[in-house]
Amino acid sequence: MSKIKELEIKNKYTGEVLRTIPADTPETVQEKIKEVHASQNLLKEMDFFERAQLLSNYASKLRFKKKQLKDLIVAEGGLPIKYSEWELNIVMTGFRFCDWYYQFIEEKTLTSIEGEQFVRIRYIPHGLAACISPRNTPISLPLYQWGANYLVGNAAIVKPSTACPLTMIEAQSMMEEMNLPALEALNLVIAPGNWAVDEFLKSPLIKTLMTITSSHTAKDILVRYANILKKTVDKSMGVAMYTHPFKNFFFECAGNDAGIVMDDVNLEQVAKWNVMASYTNSGQQCFSMKRLIVHSNIYDEYIECLIKEIEKLKYGDPTDPNTDIGPLGSRKILMMMEVMVADAKKYGCKIYTGAEKIDTGEDYGLFYKPTLVEIKPELCEDLTEAPFLWREEAFGPVRSITKAENLKDAIKLANASNYGMRAVAYTSNLETIKTFKNKLEAANIYINARPMLTDITVALGGIKDSAYPPGCKYYPQELVYGKYIYDGTPINLEKLK
Amino acid sequence: MLEEELTSQIIDPQKYKTDLAKKYTTFLSKYPEIFSDLISGSDFDFALYDSIEAYDNRSPVDIFNVYCNDHGIEIRPGRADDSDLELALSIKAVKKLIQTKTKVEYAQLLGHFFNNPDEEKGWIDFILHKRTQILIDMGYGRFARTAGILEEDDNVYSI
Fold first, then answer.
1. Residue A126, SS3?
2. What is the pLDDT of residues B24-37, one digit of tens each?
3. What is the pLDDT of residue B156?
4. Cβ-based burial of A119 (10 A; exposed 0-12, middle 13-18, buried ≥19)
């Protein structure tokens, strides 16, 4: 494990080797952790607004290099070029206006019932964070993780996916070009997650582990952490004392978002948005609309509209500006789509369109055609018995559609999930809107919203198995703790002299 | 009720260093409604740069500011005393912007230069001098949309 190995990064569409880069070893990971940790005080030499200004300047730098970055995102990530624009815009907007987050971490005074103001809450960065980001976003999430830490004053080690680390390496070199202050408090780790996670977990210098991953992988991280804790147990006092310190865990996980379409909307318009929300980036998005729940009055008509839109989707070369669906990120995803469709067929589910693969036999150029599968509502009620496609996240271009007889039925179906990232609903009835806002079980509720919003107010997060800790959140808010300072000097000083 | 017509005034036109800045101020003075989303008292700089390097060094070839009052705008030479932000423009971008024939065409081109910055073809950028929340409250977000800098997401990404 200590021998430095090289990593070949391939074009996800053509298979061409883009670059061969050195991979980290457990030893180099620990070295990097120590170096970054030793430099974290450099961040504290600047205040929040200085760091925000630097991130804003960096956003300008990214914009001037947009074409170069987009080409990399497309090549190593397989994302269609038009989607790569969106991917970059999220992070550029977030960085440009990042001082907006100050409202969540601004020091404040509390007023007691008697009107006294002895307590202040000051927000303090937790310390070094290790950030693990997924394969479907070569730049937006890893850079956002790093930026949020930089903004609040935490050093950070970022591990981009080994399938697409080049964009982040490029992003880091742009920071070096502009001599970004305190850059020593950041480093990248290029290593597979299966052992890099253990290195992060066992280092006492790392205070926070933030990952964007599947819910099952997140749970596996907790199991690994428990095993590491067990190894540090000291029973010399007769009780189990664990010497390894606590860490903060911050997981953004899977989504299995419901999308409800009621019978009082323009079906063509909603179908257009639905297809964008469901199949963008080949459906490889945690917040993709995955379970479509449609009112019975318009069910057949809506399916016709939907299929018409799905069939317009162009898949193929991601560098082509007309391509909507690029290659899948891995063979594992292709297999997962096949398994989900085969499993749905066992339940007698109807396949409306898709369910075909393009398999080069290699680890590139893999496609699964945008697929729509009907799942009967009675199959959705018991999550232990439901088809995989209903109960697990389909992280690819396969979507389910289910009929709801009425509003109550639609809500029941939407909530029949172990996940609770987002829920989307389309209706023109104001009373129905109120009911959706109150009854849908998800951390984010989107009513009559167009998909792919990039507004800074859009928060991440989820409930149930979609996030830990549960709830919506802005990253900078999660990376600090509130220090409560009670200062009784004004009333007690004289007594103490 | 009739909407009050907005006015524009170019202050000290002889003080501009470049002809291009003069032409640009004349052009902007024709469209004071572009600035109608900004509250009275808003004041921001238009800085013209001849290269990205000059922009990195914050050395514009010319600079003027647009001040919004109760009735419209005043265009003044030099930097604003307490500028809200700087809109940075490459000379190549300004040359093309002043050729546009309508406000809509101008906004589209401005948006293009922001979303597709290119050293050869032209670019724009901006630097915030005040907190984002303050600028939002002053109406700069809506202004950016009217001016074509912020696009609807539907235009940025649509299947």
1. coil
2. 999 999 999 889 99
3. 42
4. middle
- Torsion of the alpha carbons at A272, A274, A279 and A285, rounded to the nearest 10: 140
- What are A476's two structure tokens? 């900078």
A355 closest CA partner among A367, A366, A344, A370: A370
Is A66's CB within 8 Å of B117's CB? Answer: yes
Band (B38; pLDDT cuts 50, 70, 90): very high
Contacts of residue B153 in chain A, CB cutoff 8 Å? Answer: 86, 450, 452-454
| Distance, CA of A303 to CA of A378 (rounded, Å) | 19
**Which residue numbers in chain A have pLDDT < 70?**
1-4
Options 3.40.50.150, 3.40.309.10, 3.30.565.10, 3.30.160.390; CATH of A257-456: 3.40.309.10
| Percentage above 90 pLDDT, chain B | 74
List, as ranges, residues 60-119 from B with C-beta within 8 Å of A: 116-117, 119
Q: Which residue on chain A is closest to B154 by alpha carbon?
A: A450
Q: What is the pLDDT of residue A398?
A: 98
String of DSSP letters for A356-402: -EE--SSSSS-EE--EEEE--GGGTS-TTTS-HHHHS---SSEEEEE
**Among all residues of chain A, which has the CA nearest to that of B130?**
A99
State which CATH number among 3.30.300, 3.30.1050, 3.30.460, 3.40.190 fits the domain covering B7-148. Answer: 3.30.1050
A-interface mutation test, from B58, B128, B157, most A Cβ less than 10 A away: B157
Which residues pair with residue A210 across a beta bridge? A131, A250
Which ranges in chain B belong to alpha helices (H)? 19-29, 52-56, 91-97, 103-115, 132-138, 140-146, 153-156
